[in-house]
Specification:
CATH architecture: 3-Layer(aba) Sandwich
Shape: elongated
Distance between the termini: 59 Å
Largest sheet: 3 strands, parallel
Number of helices: 8
CATH class: Alpha Beta
Number of domains: 1
Strand order of the largest sheet: 1-2-3
Order of helices and strands: HEHHEHHHEHH
């Protein structure tokens, strides 16, 4: 069952609470900017009280608490804040990734968390509350460049945009793919 809430005002919160006992999974990407999760009463605590086996996944820009919880986020902004634009460009010309990498990473983390929660619920009967943010997801992917820049004394410059060569490469004197039959 898919429930789409377009309007934050009116009776939608009452309808959602009434549906909660029949819902298995609930995902929300509503902004925290004005407390919409609590205004709509589709926060994890409210919905899981009605159905403890519910898997509730909330996606936000910066997390549900902290100094940036009320701020709105979008992919390019998070790419800038995590330093990705410097990794994909040069110091003189930062460059965004060619696709919405923060959105994609966040979706993959939410998806894998939901799958793990489904597996756990199958064994234990317990639901789960998952919270995934764009900043956390892309920050996790940027750990290797961050460690490199902190621990290395050398700087790296992009060497080429040419792709790696494709095609067969000789790896041994004899054909490695030939079969011997007896």
């Amino acid at each position: 069952m898919l429930v789409k809430i377009d309007n934050l005002h009116g009776n939608h919160s009452c309808r959602l609470i009434c549906l909660a006992p029949r819902v298995n999974r609930f995902s929300s990407n509503m902004s925290n900017a004005e407390g919409e999760n609590s205004l709509c009463r589709h926060d994890a605590e409210t919905l899981r009280a009605a159905r403890p086996s519910l898997i509730h996944c909330s996606i936000s820009g910066y997390g549900e608490d902290g100094p940036y919880a009320a701020k709105k986020a979008y992919d390019l902004l998070v790419q800038c804040e995590t330093g990705l634009v410097l990794s994909t460009g040069t110091p003189e010309t930062p460059s965004k990734a060619g696709f919405s990498v923060a959105d994609l990473a966040t979706g993959v983390y939410a998806y894998s968390g939901i799958l793990a929660a489904l597996y756990d619920r199958e064994r234990t009967g317990n639901g789960a509350t998952l919270r995934v943010s764009l900043l956390d997801a892309l920050g996790e992917l940027m750990m290797q460049p961050a460690y490199f820049s902190c621990a290395s004394t050398s700087t790296t410059e992009p060497s080429s945009t040419a792709p790696a060569p494709h095609g067969p490469t000789r790896t041994c004197k004899k054909s490695c793919l030939s079969e011997t039959r007896s």
